[in-house]
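Supplementary notes for students who missed Thursday's class. We covered one full example, reproduced here. Read the sequence, then the structure, then the short commentary at the end.
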Amino acid sequence: MRLSEFEIIAKVFAPLATSPEALGLKDDVALLPPREGHELVLKTDAIVEGVDFFPNDPPGTIARKALRVNLSDLAAKGARPSGYLLTLALPRHIDTAWLRAFARGLAADQNEFGVSLCGGDLSGTPGPLTISIMAFGYVPKGRAILRSGAKAGDLVFVSGTVGDSAGGLAALRRKRRADRLIARYRVPQPRVALGQKLRGIASAALDVSDGLLADLGHIADVSKVHIAIEAARIPLSSSLRKFWGETRNAVLRAVTSGDDYEIAFTAPPSKRAAVLRAAKAARTPVAEIGFVMHGRGIALLDPAGKPMKVAKKGWEHF
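Structure (token representation):
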């Protein structure tokens, strides 16, 4: 039997509203008290069936991806996540069992990242399942790591490995077995601990959602600098190397594919050792992949230091 809208809220999602700010999901709003000496960091992102996940993906992994793509943006700003709002546009085929499995995925991530559901909205739709989350967190006042701080002479870094999610997507489409890559596509790993460790070290940062080249291009644009990335230094996982090989084309695919949700950032050379200490403390690998220069734009350099031709730098929605 299908539950009504208010039964879904009370029986499925209210147990996730563990913070007092959520008011038990019994009101129309949440109440967020100010946090002295901090700024509130807000982020919203939506994922859509058939675009960001497959219709037959497990509900729990869909829930975790929806939350984590938002936490990834908070991480890149150096923020500590606190809570989130959830909006679901549900087609008729979604039943109570699916919703309960979805909620269990959220519960697992709430426990891992220390966040709570604070409210949201439910709606029916004749279109695909659409999930929108607005996540929020706090960062000490004036310490957020923005896109605008990169300077000529800075070094460029990226956390983790690049391209795994795209490899997982390709494996699912081809119905090939690549468990680690598929797991990276379905459940990204927001670098929350690393982001907080990078406060006062990184000069600019963002999360890699649309492709490493495209996203670092945003830092170049906002900071009004030129960023050069060395193709030979791009960190590729052993799983991706096995799946795509170690060709020039594999590197190009990796740096122009979306859904990595790693942190790409810049820092002065004097902070290189501090970056490595932060990475070790956060238990997150970090690779130095390039440098910042005077000028504009972004380039991918071959081993000879010459710009490589890149037809499309990353994912575009439109």
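Commentary. The mean pLDDT is 96. DSSP finds ten helices and ten strands in the chain. If anything here is unclear, bring it to office hours.
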